[in-house]
Amino acid sequence: MDHDLNLIEALDALLTESSVTKAAARLHTSAPAMSRTLARLRRAFDDPLLVRAGRDLVPTPRALELRSEVHAVATRARALFTPSTAADPRAAVRMFDLQVADVLSTTFIPALIDDLRSQAPGISLRLRPENLEDTPALREGLVDLEIGTLRPGDPEIHSETLVTETLVGAIRPEHPLANAKSVTPERFAAADHIVVSRRGRAHGPIDERLAELGLSRRVIAVLPSFAGALHLARGTDVVCVTPARLGRSMLETLGLRTFPIPVVLPEVVLGMAWHPRNHHDRTHALLRERTRRIMAQAAGLP
């Protein structure tokens, strides 16, 4: 016959109460249903388990042998299926693998690490390279949380928008455009540009918008990271395009100036994504909550 946890729970109640009626009340079922369960248990153990002694039921020697072990198993089974509220996720010791957009590695990640050091010091972060395939990395457990520009993928993946960014041009104070009252599309296109692309792409939406105006720009270098691009912009007269809010701390540190890009560009949506296996994990949920909070602070949101 099939044995399941319900039978263990019923046996525990019967051996504890020594009463079909009381065991039924304990498990919120009827006395006839509990009597049928007792019959199944008797067949399973090939023993009466509880026998009539006057008006009461008393356990057989076999039932007495089973009672303590059955109670322990039933207790462990209940604990297994009860959501844990005792363990504090802030005290957990865990290593999480994150795949983070390059622009966030030098702006958002330091703030997140500082926050976790005080809020959940047992959590460590391991940053994985962006060249991992997004959805398979989450599905296969190579990445616990992806943070950056989210692309359409597997519908089973959970995702959440964190911040919407506007792109601006960044230049050093000595750049010819630094003192311009406004940067026209023509002056913008005439400047030398550096582009950030981990895939090495020199052209993108900006070039498409300029082309619609009959303009083109000269890209003198393509770099894989925003940090490297902004340092290059600090050292020579080039234009670097960067997020306005999330890049603010590094822009201020390097003393770079910014200006609105004179073509219409879509806003950049940054978010986080995770696999369903981690959705109800309390420590992972804490990491998402701190990510949400620190991203808002980094972007200057209320």
How much of the sequence is in beta strands? 15-25%
Mean pLDDT: 88
Question: What is the rounded Rg?
Answer: 32 Å
Helix content: 40-55%
Sheet bearing the most strands, described?
A: 5 strands, mixed
Q: Report the end-to-end length measured between terminal Cα atoms.
A: 61 Å
Structural class: alpha/beta
Assembly level? single chain
Number of helices in the DSSP assignment: 12
| Element string (H = helix, E = strand) | HHHEEHEHHEHEEEHEHEHEHEEH
List how many beta strands DSSP finds: 12
Biggest sheet strand order reads: 4-3-5-12-6
Q: Give unreliable regions as ranges.
A: none
Shape: rod-shaped
Question: Could you walk me through the main structural features you see in this protein, from its secondary elements to its overall organization?
Answer:
The chain starts with a helix and ends with a helix. The protein has twelve helices and twelve strands. Helix 1 (5-17) crosses helix 4 (61-80). It is α/β, with parallel strands linked by helices. The protein has a five-stranded mixed β-sheet. It has a five-stranded mixed β-sheet with strand order 9-8-10-7-11. Strands 1-2 form a two-stranded antiparallel ribbon. 41% of the residues lie in helices and 22% in strands. Helix 9 (205-212) links the parallel strand 8 and strand 9 (218-223). It is rod-shaped and about 105 Å long.
